[in-house]
Specification:
The protein is about 30% helix and about 35% strand. By secondary structure, the chain is an alpha+beta fold. The protein starts with a helix and ends with a helix. About 25% of the residues are buried.
C-alpha cells in the first residue's frame, strides 16, 4: 500500500513539474510592436526578465547598418547618419553606445546559432520609448521622429 501511494505521489510530482515547464515556455514569448507594426521575429523573455531579439531583425527594423565580427563575436550597428553606433559582444555585460560604456542587465546570447540582444537597451539607445504590458506579454516600441522617417 505504501509503495502504491509513493508511486502515485511520484507521478503527480513529475506531472506538476513538466506542466509548469510547458506553461513557462508558452508565456515567455512576447509580441513586439514597433510603431504599431508587429515585429515578426523570434522574441523571448530571458531568465533575468529581459526581452531578447535576434540582432539582425531589430537593427534592420531600426534601419541600421550591421557589421558582425565573428572572431570577436561582436556586432556593431550604425544609424545611416552615424549619430548612433551600438556595439555589443556575445556573453559580455558591457554595451557601447557612441563609445560610451553601459552595464547590460542581460548580455547578448547565442541561441541556436543566432545572437540575441536586449530589446529595451537597443530601443532606448536610439531614443525609442518602450512599454511592456506584462499581463498580455506585449511590448510596444515608439520610435523617435527621426527614426520613423
Amino acid at each position: 500500500m505504501k509503495r502504491n501511494l509513493f508511486i502515485m505521489f511520484l507521478i503527480l510530482l513529475i506531472t506538476a513539474v513538466f506542466s509548469g515547464a510547458i506553461y513557462a515556455e508558452e508565456v515567455s514569448k512576447p509580441k513586439v510592436y514597433v510603431n504599431n507594426e508587429k515585429l515578426d521575429s523570434e522574441t523571448f523573455i530571458s531568465y533575468s526578465g529581459v526581452a531578447m531579439v535576434p540582432f539582425r531583425d531589430i537593427f534592420a527594423r531600426y534601419d541600421m547598418e550591421v557589421k558582425w565580427d565573428n572572431a570577436q563575436k561582436t556586432v556593431t550597428a550604425s544609424s545611416k547618419d552615424g549619430s548612433n553606433v551600438i556595439k555589443l559582444t556575445q556573453d559580455s555585460n558591457d554595451g557601447y553606445v557612441n563609445n560610451k560604456k553601459y552595464n547590460l542587465t542581460q548580455s547578448p546570447a547565442l541561441v541556436n546559432g543566432v545572437l540575441y540582444v536586449n530589446l529595451r537597451f537597443i530601443s532606448e539607445s536610439i531614443g525609442a520609448k518602450v512599454n511592456y504590458d506584462k499581463p498580455s506579454l506585449t511590448i510596444h516600441i515608439t520610435l523617435p521622429k527621426a527614426a520613423k522617417e
